[in-house]
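INTERNAL AUDIT FORM
Audit reference: QA-55
Scope: verify that the stored structure record matches its stored sequence.
Auditor: D.O.
Record contents follow.
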Amino acid sequence: MLREIMTTLLCGAGLMASAQQKDLVAYANTLQGTNSEYALSHGNTYPTTGLPFGMHAWSAQTGNNGDGWKYQYKATTIRGFQQVHQCSPWVGDYAVFSLMPVAGTLKVNEEQRAAAFSHKDETARPDYYKVTFENKTTAEVTPTERGAHLRFSFPAKTPAYVVLDGYNALSGVKIYPAERKITGYVTNGRFIPQNFRNYFVIVFDQPFEAAGTWENVKGQIFADSLTGEGKGMGAFIRFRSGTKVQARVASSYISTEQAELTWQKELAGFKNLEQTRAAANKTWSTLFNRVLVEGGSEEDRATFYSCLFRANLFSHQFFEYDAQGAPHYFSPYDGKVHNGYMYTDNGFWDTFRAQFPLNTILHPTMEGRYMQALLDAQQQCGWFPAWSFPGETGGMLGNHAISLLTDAWVKGIRTFDPKQALDAYFHEAMNKGPWGGANGRAGWKEYYQLGYVSFPESHGSTSQTLEYAYDDFCAYQLAKLTGNQFYQYVFGRSLYNYKNQYDSTTGFMRGRKLDGSWVEDFNPVKWGGPYTEGNAWHWQWSVFHDVQGLIDLMGGEARFIAKLDSVFSTGNKVDVGYYGQMIHEMTEMVNAEMGQYAHGNQPVQHMIYLYNYAGQPWKAQAHARDVMKRLYNAGPDGYPGDEDQGQMSSWYVMSALGFYSVCPGTDEYVIGSPVFPKVTLTLENGKQFVVEARHNSPENVYIHSATLNGRPYSHNWIRHTDITNGGVLVLEMGKEPAKGRGLEAADKPYSISRR
């Protein structure tokens, strides 16, 4: 099935832009990961048509209004084309409205207007989406950062309608027939201020023959009404039969006037969809050519650029430009308009691991703006964002804004006041906020008094202790680098708290009670309870900042390696434990058939790189290539679990380049095994970093020797400045492991115990 999909994707989309220049954007399949549902995720994605980190994107809609699974590959009908922001089906979407072409009799209800389609009549690329329905109507979409250009082509002599759906909350519309325009607003979303509105402007290029409003609660139609306001209020326009009509759309969270200004800036200059698409293609092509891979198979390149696409969608810009071109934004935290930059739609528990480190390489200017935006958001709501959508949800665990800030600082991105960042983190670490588990700290008193979070007072206690210790390391690191002795002392004491969760009798990180005793009925394959979305096998390794300390705790390198090996050799048995039933993460681990290695979720994704710390780097090389080969592809089954705002894609992108960010907050990346014979990274500063893997192939996955800028290089890590200063890393690849290479103490990546 995948080969057929790839053939259609690469050939049908037109792989060659010219005889000399390949259209790299054609490799990216936005249907990757869309064959998902509640019980089993192959990505939980939708076919996003958008620009890198755009404020809005667009997608075909197969599911009901409000359904988190807004597009499912198995569906046979489409009911609309939505403006979208959703980063996870588990939280739904916000600020949504949709447009749908309706041929023949006017049908406004989402079920009734749905049109049948086949994937063979669908094109899904970052810069362009197109589908021809069975009724011969064609819909096309191409994006701008805060809008989109759509075109609907109706069959000859067939009545032609476009229906605007106001989604599932208060909305309003105004129709201006003389101007061929609709304005309005929607208010849907869960984590939004009370005064939140998404204002939109839609301008058509064809005259209206008739127009009216309707509401989607009862499906009432108000013919000839040009204004309406209420729950699910929408509009419909009738055009001449058999027409081809374009709709240019822009949106704003600030005002209708700002939406009009954005429309003028982003869309007024494009008279037809082809012009808008050419601009979108140029944006993606420029980015993809900055990460240029050579060699490898067509399937590998399609997987790589499909993942690179998703790695560059989240976080969304949440700022707009005023008439003078200055950025300003409506804050999702305090509901006021501020000057400057703001970003949202991201869960840092997922993305601190690889997506943000990838940004430090590819987008340091944006990363610098983002770091100041984090501090602004903290001022506006009293807490750092942890899982914003668009306001703070407090989802998951940990206080990973400090990881982002420290990682940026360590890598030379110094656009914020470190004292302000540390003060804000101190408040975060010593309090519990009013929202979810990552808003402040659940169990913070026990964490400091006992050295661990206790169970059952806090579910996920072991996971919390491990991630708090890592976050405290990041605060310690930032304090040390900026000469802040107070915070260096405060967090230097608690960054070793991970040791208090290790039970030497079982050899696992284990839940502890208030009295210091271990939680009974221990089973390392038992999910939940002290572990968040996993079991003891998965959470054994979350000591990013002190792998050497973990090695020592576990009895030395031999035992550490044996335990790593056992993750793969132990069967993929599941004890549903505290969950009481199979959840999708469990099913995905079982389906991967890699023992207890659960790549479909975040906690264990860095684990294979830990072989580099314990004298067997060749195993990291083999496992990295095996995971990329077996668990990723560019098709609808393209991921082994939730894609999660670019984290899973970023893991693939970085691993395919040949290195991974095991410990953000340090300036090192741990080396694995690159997929391609050659990769050229073109950085914002104009310099290039080349990874050349000579004799690379699906069989030759092992590094036999290396040079960095012409000098022999034995380390299992490279520094951030090795990349940003430009240079060439040459790897000689072979079929058998080079077991004598990279074994010296200096070759091992950073651990605070080895400082």
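Auditor finding: record pair retrieved intact. Residues 461-481 form the longest helix (21 residues).
Action required: none
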